[in-house]
């Protein structure tokens, strides 16, 4: 039943947005399963847990601090001792320390080579760029900044489509100098704001039962046979969520997918772990299924919405490619849609982004200085209208964006006049 309910959400997640979050979610679900195995703690399972943590890190750097904190806390909560040699008087090491070391070594075997590669490339110790970037975008006392990639023309690295393929090359704001008190106050503001956002995202998620799941989790932690397991689940949710509460710059549900799946799995384990008669357990399971399956399966309609627009962008790119077979440097007045079309243009197309100037002269100068060959106009902004009277540019194509997931229904393609 859980598989049926998860089908809608999983397929939507897989097609809605191309980020590593679904990979991280899948790997962490296996990691959580290993830690809840009745045979854990054991050397073998701790090694597997460490390897899974390392794989999650390769997908997304957030897994690095999460694994180190979560696996360490889990091992601290373990009980028992491990004998170095049976039937001897040799000193015994705590079993949880042994398990922790095995897991850490396995994790390091996956993580350290990649950290070394990044550090050599960027000439500094580097485990991932997202943490530094998110910290820069969290302006003290204000809402997060808009990412610089969506405003301005940025030169892509060699043999890449866009500067977004290596966001470390973009300029980011630097926090002003603050006293310790002021800095703590700013972090307090960030935590308060992001905590509210996180609760809203978890409460109104695609699975539609996180709110009930958390309530059930609290009640089950008090009354179920496996109380320690459910307290551990609560602790896992808190640890995972806290990392994003400290660093989140956009309200995006994908950050909390591992938490949502964990809650979903928990909800359907409740009937088996509370003292109820068999018929009541069956009735409770059917109630969960009836309550949650409709919305999840209904969300399958998003598959059409999220895949159909790409056809319109691909058709537009085919028409542009027919008119401009050579490699081009492209700009647009809508960053996301310009990126989509540039991707389908292929060849050696480079997409530089959206001009940041709001004046006609500044707009034209920005295109000229960045050596833009093609401009994609989705909306007739005041600065974009400058191309209509600019003798350096001529409109060559008008393309109807039929079925595209866009507020623009027509694309105008401008080409720089070649001397």
From TrEMBL:
Annotated source species: Candidatus Doudnabacteria bacterium RIFCSPHIGHO2_01_FULL_50_11
Entry annotated with the keyword Transmembrane helix: yes
Protein name, UniProt field: Glycosyltransferase RgtA/B/C/D-like domain-containing protein
Highest taxon in the source lineage: Bacteria
TM stretches of this protein: 12-33, 45-78, 99-120, 206-224, 229-249, 255-271
Keywords, in A-Z order: Membrane, Transmembrane, Transmembrane helix
């Amino acid at each position: 039943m859980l598989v049926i309910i998860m089908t809608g959400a999983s397929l939507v997640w897989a097609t809605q947005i191309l980020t590593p979050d679904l990979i991280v979610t899948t790997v962490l679900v296996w990691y959580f399963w290993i830690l809840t195995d009745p045979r854990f703690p054991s050397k073998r399972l701790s090694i597997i847990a460490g390897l899974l943590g390392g794989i999650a890190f390769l997908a997304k750097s957030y897994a690095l601090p999460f694994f180190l904190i979560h696996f360490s806390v889990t091992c601290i909560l373990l009980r028992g001792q491990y004998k170095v040699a049976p039937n001897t008087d040799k000193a015994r090491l705590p079993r949880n320390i042994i398990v922790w070391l095995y897991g850490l070594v396995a994790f390091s075997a996956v993580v350290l080579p990649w950290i070394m590669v990044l550090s050599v490339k960027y000439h500094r110790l580097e485990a991932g760029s997202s943490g530094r970037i998110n910290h820069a975008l969290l302006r003290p006392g204000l809402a997060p900044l808009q990412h610089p990639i969506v405003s301005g023309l940025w030169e892509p690295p060699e043999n890449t489509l866009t500067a977004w393929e290596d966001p470390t090359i973009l300029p980011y704001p630097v926090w002003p100098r603050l006293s310790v008190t002021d800095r703590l106050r700013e972090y307090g503001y960030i935590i308060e704001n992001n905590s509210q956002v996180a609760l809203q995202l978890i409460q109104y998620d695609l699975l539609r039962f996180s709110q009930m799941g958390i309530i059930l989790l609290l009640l089950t932690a008090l009354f179920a046979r496996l109380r320690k397991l459910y307290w551990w689940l609560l602790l896992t949710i808190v640890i995972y969520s806290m990392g994003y509460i400290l660093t989140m710059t956009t309200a995006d549900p994908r950050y909390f997918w591992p938490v949502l799946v964990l809650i979903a799995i928990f909800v359907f384990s409740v009937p088996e772990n509370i003292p109820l008669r068999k018929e009541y357990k069956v009735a409770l399971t059917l109630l969960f299924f009836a309550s949650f399956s409709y919305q999840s399966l209904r969300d399958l309609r998003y598959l059409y919405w999220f895949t159909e627009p790409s056809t319109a962008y691909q058709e537009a790119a085919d028409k542009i490619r027919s008119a401009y077979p050579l490699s081009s440097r492209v700009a647009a007045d809508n960053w996301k849609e310009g990126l989509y079309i540039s991707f389908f243009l292929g060849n050696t197309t480079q997409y530089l982004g959206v001009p940041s100037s709001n004046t006609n002269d500044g707009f034209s100068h920005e295109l000229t200085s960045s050596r833009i060959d093609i401009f994609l106009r989705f909306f007739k902004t005041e600065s974009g209208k400058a191309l209509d009277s600019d003798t350096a540019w001529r409109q060559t194509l008008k393309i109807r964006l039929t079925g595209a997931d866009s507020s623009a229904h027509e694309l105008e393609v401008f080409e720089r006049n070649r001397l």
